[in-house]
Design goal:
The complex is a heterodimer of chains A (about 210) and B (about 525).
Chain A lengths: L11 H10 L12 H4 L32 H19 L19 H20 L8 H27 L4 H37 L7
Chain B lengths: L2 H15 L1 H13 L2 E2 H8 L3 H13 L3 E5 L5 E5 L1 H5 L4 H26 L2 E2 H15 L8 H13 L3 E3 L42 H5 L6 H13 L8 E4 L1 H20 L2 H14 L13 E2 H7 L8 H13 L5 E5 L5 E4 L1 H21 L1 H13 L1 E2 L1 H8 L3 H13 L4 E6 L9 E6 L2 H29 L1 H19 L4 H8 L4 H41 L1
Antiparallel strand pairs in B: 1-3, 2-3, 4-6, 5-6, 7-9, 8-9, 10-12, 11-12
Helix pairs in contact in B: 1-2, 1-19, 2-4, 6-7, 6-8, 7-8, 11-12, 15-16, 15-19, 15-22, 19-22
Classes of the chains: A mainly alpha (about 210), B mainly alpha (about 525).
GO molecular function, one term (chain B): single-stranded DNA binding
Organism (chain B): Ovis aries (Sheep)
Protein name (chain B): DNA-directed RNA polymerase III subunit RPC3
């Protein structure tokens, strides 16, 4: 066992006392024997820290590269797929549209959203049969979602007439409905644009398409 | 629960279930178990939303409930289980390697939906597999059922606790919440189902009905009206079994790195033999005799008994002590020291972190202190052969980051500093905990950064999605190449560059999350194993 220098000195108490007593002389006074921790006599202490360490301190050593390879890429793709898939599941609860006071707003505003939806469906449907080359799966999907909405909308209308006690809950559901409609409306309009593009380009080959 | 864990749970819940579930979940994690009304009141959300959120959380085994006196039901969140969501891709990939695509999809469905009945799983997986197969081929329910049964037999899938069958002795009102029970024996009992059918391809069933999907609807709904034979028997993925598999994998690859392929195969065989006999928290496996191991070696391995004995002796003598000899009967009884193996793996992780963060000289000092347990300043300088000033600097750096700690040994009862020994030491358990906490923080940072990057480029992402949709629909209508070109040019070259950079960054951040999760698994396993022994 190596003993630190100065520890075995029988006059230790007096040394400690003189150390404590001699404030201000010598370099910083600490309560323990600094030599024990390794700071020898005459060594300069590191500069005092006057501010918190920087948020992104410069890295001395670059991090090791990530493992790549088939397994890594497959798991990565899985992870991203899962993220997307979970958003589509019914377990993903979207925040509800805030409650509106329907007494203050004209009644037509509430129904109008559905009417627009219905109008859209009627407009789109006749367009579909002529375009037989279109992807049928997309069509079916779209129609199914539209019909689902129609069904939900009509069923909710029935519920409203029957039970007014659970109005709160229904309104929330309706709002969920609107939320959904608003969200998918966005995409709906894209599909519309796509058809217009296709339709226009079929007719006029001269016009440039922006 | 530390702040870092709560933050990570919050991010995971929000990404997978939305903000409402996140708010309720985080509130429960912070405050412990609470009844419904208190939750609604404290979080300021409407009762309906709280109910929906709790249903989702319970469905996914993230929240449990208990009936307390006076009929009050209290809900409690399982923070650890929420953190497991980070590992879902790894579970699914493992199922794929063991049971190919069918197994992969079964585990995926179970994880995405929390709990499901066997018939529901089989049907859904068959449908999904049929989609990916060539036209005209379908997936038979029987094949999917077989894979399901195999998953249950190897304990990767287990039954959820059941609603107890109520005898008519209860004359009072039914309890507010059922107390679910599960018998050990029943956990892996597959009900006798005769699931006959084939997977349905969405396209093929709807192709004949372009203009009248409504007519198809009633047909499908009548199928659902048939009574489900295994109603009430729900299955969930058994995460502990997956963890056991990961642990075995880590041990085998550690042996392979340290020694050679054959020794790792021997260790793998031993682990496989102990799979069902050893409980998951045991410090070492049941003793296996050398004869048994010889008989159970994989068929392709032609090593003689003597060579096997030599390998086993080598493994037992190795200082890492993965394998230990516990007796001499049957040609030598050998065990695998699971706890020691996990400890070695955790230590290796710590060493690697020190090396990558501080440099190889620091790593040398760290390994030295690990080996010698307690060292003084002077001794460190001498043994490591590093000049005093640098050694001091490195020790303090590691000390400030809590990889190394200082142990005081007073010589006199008054603990006078001049008469006290200060020894550097590594406390593996506390260093592992510190590193684990850092890992949680890292993953939270990675997720936040990824979300930030995605949000920054949201406009561009949406534009590119739009363009893709337009191109897809145009291709379907048979537009010409020139038109497709013009649409593609809607996204300018610098924008394309930006999208490429974004994709690369997001992929990198995702890969980092997966990598950090592997470290989290090792450290958590070690800490859990140590806590069980105390």
């Amino acid at each position: 066992m190596v003993f630190p220098i100065g520890c075995l000195n029988p006059q230790a108490p007096s040394i400690m006392a003189s150390r404590g007593g001699g404030r201000g002389c010598g370099r910083g006074q600490l309560t323990f024997n600094v030599e024990a921790v390794g700071i020898g006599k005459g060594d300069a202490l590191p500069p005092p820290t006057l501010q918190p360490s920087p948020l992104f301190p410069p890295l001395e050593f670059r991090p090791v590269p990530l493992p790549s390879g088939e397994e890594g890429e497959y798991v990565l793709a899985l992870k991203q797929e899962l993220r997307g898939a979970m958003r589509q599941l019914p377990y993903f609860i979207r925040p509800a549209v805030p409650k509106r006071d329907w007494r203050r707003l004209p009644r037509e505003l509430k129904i109008r959203v559905r009417k627009l939806q219905k109008e859209r469906t009627t407009i789109i449907l006749p367009k579909r049969p002529p375009k037989t080359t279109e992807d049928k799966e997309e069509t079916i999907q779209k129609l199914e979602t539209l019909e689902k909405k129609e069904e939900e909308v009509t069923s909710e209308e029935d519920e409203e007439k029957e039970e007014e006690e659970e109005k709160e809950e229904e309104e929330e559901e309706e709002y969920d409905e609107e939320e959904h409609e608003e969200e998918t409306d966005y995409i709906m309009s894209y599909f519309d644009n796509g058809e217009d593009f296709g339709g226009d380009s079929d007719d006029n080959m001269d016009e440039a398409i922006y | 629960m530390t702040q870092a864990e709560i933050k990570l749970c919050s991010l995971l819940l929000q990404e997978h279930f939305g903000e409402i579930v996140e708010k309720i979940g985080v509130h429960l994690i912070r405050t412990g178990s609470q009844p419904l009304r208190v939750i609604a009141h404290d979080t300021g959300t409407s009762l309906d939303q709280v109910k929906k959120a709790l249903c989702v959380l319970i469905q996914h085994n993230l929240v449990i409930y208990q009936v307390h006196k006076r009929g009050v039901v209290e809900y409690e969140a399982q923070c650890n289980r929420v953190l497991r969501m980070l590992r879902y891709p790894r579970y699914i990939y493992t199922a794929k390697t063991l049971y190919s695509d069918t197994g992969e999809l079964i585990v995926e469905e179970l994880l995405l939906n929390g709990k499901m009945t066997m018939s529901a799983v089989v049907k859904k997986v068959a449908d999904r597999l049929t989609e990916t197969m060539e036209d005209g081929k379908t997936m038979d329910y029987a094949e999917v059922s077989n894979t399901f049964v195999r998953l249950v037999d190897t304990h990767f899938v287990q039954r959820c606790p059941l609603v107890p069958a109520t005898e008519n002795s209860d004359t009072g009102p039914p309890p507010p919440a059922p107390t679910l029970v599960i018998n050990e024996k029943d956990m892996y009992l597959v009900p006798k189902l005769s699931l006959i059918g084939k997977g349905k391809r969405r396209r093929s069933s709807d192709e004949d009905a372009t203009g009248e999907p409504k007519a198809k609807r009633p047909k499908q709904s009548t199928d659902n009206k048939e009574p489900i034979p295994d109603d009430g028997i729900y299955w969930q993925a058994n995460l502990d079994r997956f963890h056991q598999h990961f642990r075995d994998q880590a041990i085998v690859s550690a042996v392979a790195n340290r020694m050679d392929q054959t020794s790792s195969e021997i260790v793998r065989t031993m682990l496989r033999m102990s799979e069902v006999t050893t409980p998951s928290g045991a410090p070492f496996t049941q003793p296996l005799s050398s004869n048994e191991i010889f008989r159970s070696l994989p068929v392709g391995y032609n090593i003689s008994k003597q060579v096997l004995d030599q390998y086993l002796t080598l493994l037992a003598d190795d200082p890492l002590e993965f394998v230990g000899k516990s007796g001499d009967s049957g040609g030598g009884m050998y065990v695998i020291n699971l706890h020691k193996a996990l400890g070695s793996l955790a230590t290796a992780t710590l060493e690697s972190v020190v090396q990558e963060r501080f440099g190889s000289r620091c790593a040398r000092i760290f390994r030295l202190v690990l080996q010698k347990k307690h060292l003084e300043q002077k001794q460190v300088e001498d043994f490591a052969m590093i000049p005093a000033k640098e050694a001091k600097d490195m020790l303090y750096k590691m000390l400030s980051e809590n990889f190394i700690s200082l142990q005081e040994i007073p010589k006199t009862p008054d603990h006078a500093p001049s008469r006290t020994f200060y020894l550097y030491t590594v406390n593996i358990l506390s260093a592992a905990r510190m590193l684990l906490h850092r890992c949680y923080k890292s993953v939270a940072n990675l997720i936040e950064r990824r979300q930030f990057e995605t949000k920054e480029n949201k406009r561009l992402l949406e534009k590119s999605q739009r363009v893709e949709a337009i191109i897809a629909s145009m291709q379907a209508t048979g537009a010409e190449e020139a038109q497709l070109q013009e649409i593609e040019e809607m996204i300018t070259a610098p924008e394309r560059q930006q999208l490429e950079t974004l994709k690369r960054n997001v992929n990198k951040l995702d890969a980092c999350e997966i990598q950090v999760d592997e470290t989290i698994f090792l450290l958590e396993s070690y800490i859990e194993s140590t806590m069980k022994r105390q």
